[in-house]
Amino acid sequence: MTSVLALLDIQLPIIQAPMAGVSTPAMAAAVSRAGGLGSLGVGAMSVDAARGAIGEARARGAGPLNVNVFVHQPTAPNPAKELAWIERLRPEFERYGASPPSGLADIYRSFLKDDAMLAMLLVEKPTVVSFHFGVPLPAQLNALRGAGIILMASATSLSEARQLTAAGIDVVIAQGHEAGGHRGLFDPGVPDDQLSCPALTRILVRRLDRPVIAAGGMMDGAGIGAALRLGAGAAQLGTAFIDTPESLADEAFRAALTGEPGHHTVMTRAISGRPARCMANRFTALGAAIGDDVVPSYPRAYDLGKALHAAAKARGEFGYGAQLAGQGAPLSRAMPTEQLVRTLAQEVKAV
Predict the structure, then answer these.
(1) Domains located in the chain, CATH noted
(2) CA–CA separation, 178 vs 51, rounded Å?
(3) How many angstroms from the chain centroid is the CA of residue 32?
(4) In this predicted model, what pLDDT tens digit does every residue of 136-147 receive, in sequence order?
């Protein structure tokens, strides 16, 4: 089996997670310059914005580059459920002198329906295209593979991983339940076994015939080293990069990361409609008292979540943001991205 380092043409077993809304071309380029794999999360971007981000990363001297897209199953609008959700959150808007929108929209286009994004990727040819929330169509995978692009995708279970390998995905990312951000569940309506990163990584290493990348909870070289000892070819870290100067995280997000909220991450659907690990805040507290079945589907619920965050933020309240972070948040270190990668590499070598 080809090693992850050889396949991705990187020197270090360190992959920066493609955090939509947090990662930047500057971050991705810095990781790649330091010998890891830098990533761009373009699932929330237009095609033109994604093309521009790829170009900027390359202009900054990025080597191998991973571009990540969302592969969620499109869902039909449910006006009654969405109106009820809007009315449930109306008091939160009014608390900050605002009114909620009258309806919700699909703010993120699934890659399954995005021919323009596929066409752009076939022209730009990043080293890697990775997928979250599911498996692309066979024709999409064949086109990307035919362009010489390496394919990676997230799995939260052996069943999902087997679907990925059957589709010809080159590398499987084992996303543990402790990972920050959205769970990569293919179907958020089925029970989640909530496997930890170590357990899932070891299961996939034992059962799959291709490389596995560990993701979830790792913040330093000791964590990366543990993942490598379990058989992972590399580790993917996201929360570790939130407090770098290259991150788009605002000051409130950074303060939460290094303060008490960072010690209390929770899984919630209330913010976006899909399970996501966030630092405890006003929105997660609100979600804790609400059943998952009343929250509209992703990304329509996210449309309302973003509107509420904007309304509260305008009045100086930052507790409704999607402050996505993993359980390793208390281990966060503030330093430039390239310095962080080199520090991680030295720590891995030491252990």
Answers:
(1) 1-72+108-243+336-351 (3.20.20.70), 75-107+247-332 (no CATH)
(2) 32
(3) 18
(4) 999 999 999 999
